[in-house]
Amino acid sequence: MATPSCLRARGGHGVPPLQLMQVALRILGILLCLFFIQAAARFGLSRMFTRYALITNSIPAADEAVRISPSDPEAHRARAMVFISQQMPAEAVNSFETATRLRYRDDYLWIELGNTREDFGDTEGALAALDEAVRWAPYYAHTHWQRGNLLLRMGRSGDAFAELRKAAAANPAYTPNLIDLAWGISRGDLKTTEALLENNDDAHRLALFRFLFAAKAFTEAYEVSHPSDRLEPSLLNGGFEEPLVFNDAGFGWIIAPEQKNHLAIDISEKLNGAKSLQISLDGNWTPGTALLSQTFIVKPGKTYRVSFGVKTKDLVTGGPPLLTVIDATNDQLLAKSANFPTGTTPWARLSMEFTTLPASQAAVIRLQRSNCNSSPCPIFGTLWLDEFSIEQTQTVKN
Amino acid sequence: MNQKRRNGSRVIAALLLFSIAQISLQVGLAEPNNTTNSTTIPQQLVGRLTTRNNQPITVNGLSANTGASILSGATIETGADQSATVTVGPLGSVYISRNTKLVLTFDEQGNLKALIINGCATVTAKKKATGEIATEQGSVKKTEPAAGGVLKVCFPETAGTPTNGQTAGHGGPFGLGTVATVLIFSAYGAEILVPFIIFQRNPSHSAP
Questions:
Q1: Where are the domains of chain A?
Q2: What is the interface pTM, i.e. ipTM, of the complex?
Q3: CB 3.0 to 4.6 Å from A266: which of A74, A278, B79, B170, for a disulfide?
Q4: pLDDT of B97-123, one tens digit each?
């Protein structure tokens, strides 16, 4: 085997080539390790400065982070955040632009750039940034949501709601916010709200109904839930002929969750029809709390009479049950029935009249107890309710 | 023969007309829907929400984040570790401190009003706008449109003071705190010294 000339030059006692290569490789490995250690140290140090810059809003620390690791988009982003906190939007925009150049697929960076450009008054630039955000994350809700909000502020409400609807379609968690914006921008006009929302399924209509009900827009909520009905006061399922639905909100009967085991539909006792509501009382029922309630539509400034049937069995209490009617918007008491009879009594019809307030949209009928003279104040026995009805009696004249 | 030819021409012409009508109909049907909603909405001012550290706050009982639109009449609520600013373009801005609930109203006539239910708020009104802070007891402070200005109110007064969300410095050259500064400089020194020791080279650039 021929000996390489470089080894021969050392008098034939040179290192074998394989060993030389191994040494070279080891040196290369060590150099690479040192390089990576140094790179990691720089990166780590930059990130440390980045964190402290963000915590303390220190521009010198942010500058140092960028100087140590100029190709780290996170350092530029942090610098931009610090500029924002120091009310320096122009510098923040520059830093965000550098960050987006370094990490152009990051939709959150584009959103931050868009928001900062908008702060700086550059709405077109902001829209361009949010266009990029949507481009890189077209199936995510937050990009459409941000772009839609910007378009809304730019006065392009049609385009804005098209974008906002996309966001709500991608993530239904945005639906209540979408409805809130539509209701607000349309200044409480249901037709415009519906047009902006383009409600086309039951889920959307239910969401709109819940929003309107929570916003105490009862008339509109009723229109949404009963589109084909006339806006006339009525008590739903007043004879308890249909199953009780344990709604948390709406126009049906609402039963206090802790009391639902005490209520049952009874087919053996009824004033009319085939069923009634039986309430078994075992002692606990805090006076003043409603065991059963229903919100119903009323017209402002009108007088109504609510009638119902009641029967009791072994009802013993110092605070007998009664029905009250309050205004659904401000909880003002409108009427109170007579106390229910105690002991055991046959079916009896009770009624009460009330006049709605000038701005009333809805009222709430509540089954509750009279206040007791002593505490504790238990209640025992059984009572049945049936045949709730409401009728307008006369118009109050000013 | 001529009659036959004439009839043939008529049939061809009729067929051609029918075909064109069909194409027109198809093109008409294939026209894309106008995606822009035709609903007319009166132009109105819309504010923009910026939350501290992009933390969500509550607007009208719903979670809202930086970039959300704020309409006049919105009820805004911040939690214990949250604060936010609502910018209403030509009118100014309202800074909402932590643990604050307020109702924000504004209009095209230049009125920017924060009705504080509880907590602290700072209204910064631009010139030609009227900034106002009110509580349930009535108007507390108001700016003049000619001058604009900054109003700061806490309600009840024991609620605290607006902080504008800026953390005070902690000392040290960067305001990082003494320990943090020592740590950073130790790490930075190590970063400089490591290549110097290993490679025996000057870490500074050869040319200024």
A1: 42-225, 253-395
A2: 0.78
A3: A278
A4: 999 999 999 999 999 999 999 999 999
